[in-house]
Amino acid sequence: MKKIIALLTVFVLIITAGCANKGIINDPDTGLITPEEPEFTYTDGKYIVYTDYYDPAGYAAAIQLIVTEGIITQSNFDIFDTKLNRYTKTEDEALLDSAEALRTEIKSLNTHLMQAQSSTGLKSVSEYGSYYIILVRQAIKNAAEGVNTPTAVSLRQEYRAEAQDTSQENTPPLISGLTAAFMGDEIISLNFSQTMEGKRVQDWPNIYPSVEQEEEYTYSRAIALINEMPENSESLIKESPCERAKALFNTYNTLAEEITKRHKKFEANYSSLFSNL
């Protein structure tokens, strides 16, 4: 019975959503698309999957699959900013070209998904296209298991913050940089460094001649303490563990706070993200 339904199912593709409506043949771009037998037995319903945090550019992704009579009949995907504006609907002139490219990629991915009825063979040409594939795989898994609760997926997100110190006379600016990579709530890598004219600073006295020579070790140890990854980290280090390196840690903490503010959870009424289609 499902084989018969699959053979009768064809597709109407809209710009940012893929639809398969029974009894309708209307795909001006590719003509008739005949879906394959579904890889899994899907439970009817709506399945929403989303990224749990905004990325460094300030966008989060979400996908909605609709299953009818065991067939994936609709796929909606988009990128959302912190005000829940849809990237593919942007009116920002600076983003129009990239939004058009994303719409084109989404349409291609939807066409493949509708025909294959699985994520097998999906290929992305952009970072957000790769988001589509990750999210749709989880949505398909949910449909196969009948789990229709909106589901969060964690992606690796890397943030970078820098500060420049020009307080020392007759020396080039000292650049402090902090890079933190997260997987959901957890920090998976952390790197803090200071450079001058593009070269990594190895000892404090050469930059701050007034600092006593014995504090050279303090500086090196401070850098090591910052970059050590304690187990089960849930947030960036807030307190300075070394009194002798207060200036260093103050800079670090400033950068850490900047990154913490940018590492924001994607919170929304997920079920209504695509309600205006």
Structure description:
This protein is an alpha+beta fold and 277 residues long. The strands form two sheets. Strands 1-2-5-4-3-6 form a six-stranded mixed β-sheet. Helix 2 runs parallel beside helix 3. The protein has five helices and ten strands; from the N terminus they run H-E-E-E-E-E-H-H-E-E-E-E-E-H-H.
> What is the count of DSSP helices, taking H or I runs of 4+ residues?
5
pLDDT < 50 runs, ≥5 residues: 1-17, 21-28, 203-217, 230-244
Give the C-alpha Rg: 25 Å
- Mean pLDDT, to the nearest integer, reads 77
Count of separate structural domains: 2
Largest sheet: 6 strands, mixed
Estimate the helix proportion, in percent. 25-40%
DSSP strand count: 10
Structural class: alpha+beta
Kindly list the characteristics that best describe this protein.
single chain; 277 residues; alpha+beta; Sufe protein. Chain: A; 2 domains; six-stranded mixed sheet; four-stranded antiparallel sheet; 5 helices; 10 strands; 27% strand; elongated; disordered N terminus
